[in-house]
Write a structure and sequence with these properties.
Catalytic activity (chains A, B): L-isoleucine + 2-oxoglutarate = (S)-3-methyl-2-oxopentanoate + L-glutamate; L-leucine + 2-oxoglutarate = 4-methyl-2-oxopentanoate + L-glutamate; L-valine + 2-oxoglutarate = 3-methyl-2-oxobutanoate + L-glutamate
Family (chains A, B): Belongs to the class-IV pyridoxal-phosphate-dependent aminotransferase family.
CATH architecture of the largest domain in chain A: Alpha-Beta Barrel
Radius of gyration of chain A: 21 Å
Largest sheet of chain A: 9 strands, mixed
Cofactor (chains A, B): pyridoxal 5'-phosphate
EC number (chains A, B): 2.6.1.42
Keywords (chains A, B): Amino-acid biosynthesis, Aminotransferase, Branched-chain amino acid biosynthesis, Pyridoxal phosphate, Transferase
Strand content of chain A: 25-35%
Number of domains of chain A: 2
Number of helices of chain A: 8
Oligomer: homodimer
Chain lengths: 357, 357
């Protein structure tokens, strides 16, 4: 690990903490944030924890013009016995560097990033909410900051971490959602940036999502950009299917995000003796299986919701009602187990959690 | 036109202007910038010209996370008789709104934007360089500013314009460039954001461009994202071919940017009685035409270089040497005519220029 002196400037004007039961996602931030700077000749340097507050950038800063940026999303959980746990954070920093590689951003030291994240969360421990279903959302991100309109990689960057307490994703318990299968707009394509967590992948979906919502859908299921036939992800989550007793998920093909919840579900199911088949999955074949009465459960997986059961898929005017709009047994068991491990209620036999001491 | 009171706060600490012959692209900015704010309940409001300087944003501002942003690029030129001309600026604002539509950003009033741009440039008239080949580069852009990590359109935006004096793109006159035909990475695909000028489209090309440069190429020619067969654009320019006496350019298919120089070249050639065929163009068919000795000229078109002759195309290990690495007659004539119109040396029979009074 590269050694750096972490400077901590404590916030003397602490904010009031929000009520824990109904915190809207991603709008409340803690008292501190983390910043580390990059410069070609110095590398990553000057790591600091400072009071949360506005950052000042030149209007020509590259982030505003050419989108050279990557991010991560993870959570810290309070256990009933007062500990604070992270869930596989090393996987997030690994993926951050993979995203950075695709966007020509210099890698960060993953061990250092985790060490400094722990220090930040330790300082903000009181911000980790305790009500069931709540957590502290963690957003690490890197932005390109050269004041330069020439198209090309920046020579300066800021790596930052901000923290946001978040309420339960499904306040009344898991809720199956209605999903539109998108066959006009494209999220990503082979050779593009689909496997990277980078800003441009998200806003490019807004138009499709708005159209889907107008028709009563909660989100969209993206198909591949080439044939508009193969299933990729739902919204910003990965997707799983239980068909005729077997579990399937689209294989990582370069345009699908390598979800950490996705990976954990595959490992967990394997540990239960349930194999998961990762393969190219055609939407028309799914529809055939549906018509044959074989589609038993469908669920999205991601950091925000952990498991999001899908109750209905709308594809080219055809409706697939999944498990009578009810939560499947497997979906519920996976949700209970993963959230249980995350919050210390279920034994962490797979060694996934990292405690903040 | 909606009426707004434009507030002007003059910069009292004016900067020195750079020497005009060797200004690097996009690194020097003028004394003032333009900002207009958007808020859902107010619409676009508070247009202001203020001293050029840093902007302050919440670290959770959506621009840093989800890439909801669009931009434009255009230029102002000094004529020999001391006038300042814009080149088809109304087309840029039209395209800005098209880009915004794709990115779910509220449209701006195009007439108002042009009127305010004129006032900004009038104030910065001394910053428009006079040396042949130089100009004042204009960068209008919109960024999403809600401090909110929920994925979705922002409710607040900033529309800004910054200005940068730029030197001659080819200081020694036009220079044919060597281009790599990219068959691994993808810039854009049908249903994606390729037709929009949005940040994510640019940084997604850095890795391919870096690989191409390592092998001695100046830039890449993008192929379609589906078959990796059909020609799209070169770098961030459109591309034209003169084959066996005829002029061709890839048709606008939803993943190619609708270039204003591209449009102007088609109109100019038509006005000369030279038809331009817009069609889907396969790289293997281009190679066949090359082997038959029929590829006479290739050139990129864009605001930065106007015309960029291509001297060599490298595709899957095969070299296509175009016109013996020399500037084609048509490329030179188009360059001379368009830059002539832009700088008032050639009569503007097509009514393209807009004078700043």
């Amino acid at each position: 690990m590269t050694t750096y002196q972490l400077e901590v400037i404590e916030n003397t004007a602490k904010k009031d903490k929000p009520a824990q039961d109904q915190i809207p996602f991603g709008q409340t931030f803690t008292d501190h944030m983390y910043i580390m700077e990059y410069q070609t000749d110095k590398g990553w340097h000057e790591p600091k924890i400072v009071p949360y507050g506005p950052i000042s950038l030149d209007p020509a800063a590259m982030i505003f013009h050419y989108g050279q940026t990557v991010f991560e999303g993870m959570k810290a959980y309070h256990t009933e016995d007062g500990r604070v746990l992270l869930f596989r954070p090393e996987k997030n920093f690994e993926r951050l560097n993979l995203s950075s590689e695709r966007l020509s951003i210099p890698p960060i030291d993953e061990d250092l990033a985790l060490e400094h994240l722990k220090q930040l969360i330790k300082l903000e421990k009181d911000w980790v909410p305790k009500t069931p279903g709540t957590s502290l959302y963690i957003r690490p991100y890197i932005i390109s900051t050269d004041a330069n309109l020439a198209v090309g990689p920046s020579s300066t960057y800021k790596y930052m971490v901000i923290l946001s307490p978040v309420g339960s994703y499904f306040p009344g318990g898991l809720q199956p959602v209605v999903i539109h299968v998108e066959d006009k707009f494209t999220r990503a394509v082979k050779g593009g940036t689909g496997m990277a967590k980078t800003a441009g992948n998200y806003s490019s979906g807004y138009q499709a999502q708005a159209n889907a919502k107008k028709e009563g859908n909660a989100d969209v299921l993206w198909l591949d950009g080439v044939e508009k036939r193969y299933i990729e992800e739902v919204g910003s989550m990965n997707i799983f299917f239980k068909i005729d007793g077997e579990v399937f998920t689209p294989e990582l093909n370069g345009s699908i995000l390598k979800g950490i919840t996705r990976m954990s579900i595959i490992e967990l199911l394997n540990s239960w003796g349930i194999p998961v088949t990762e393969k190219r999955m055609a939407i028309d074949e799914l529809y055939e299986a549906y018509q044959a009465g074989k589609v038993e459960e469908v669920f999205g997986t991601g950091t925000a919701a952990v498991i999001s059961p899908v109750g209905e898929l709308n594809w080219q005017g055809q409706k697939m009602i999944i498990n009578n709009h009810e939560i499947g047994e497997l979906s519920q068991k996976l949700y209970d187990t993963i959230t249980g491990i995350q919050t210390g209620k279920v034994e962490d036999t797979l060694d996934w959690t990292v405690e903040i001491n």
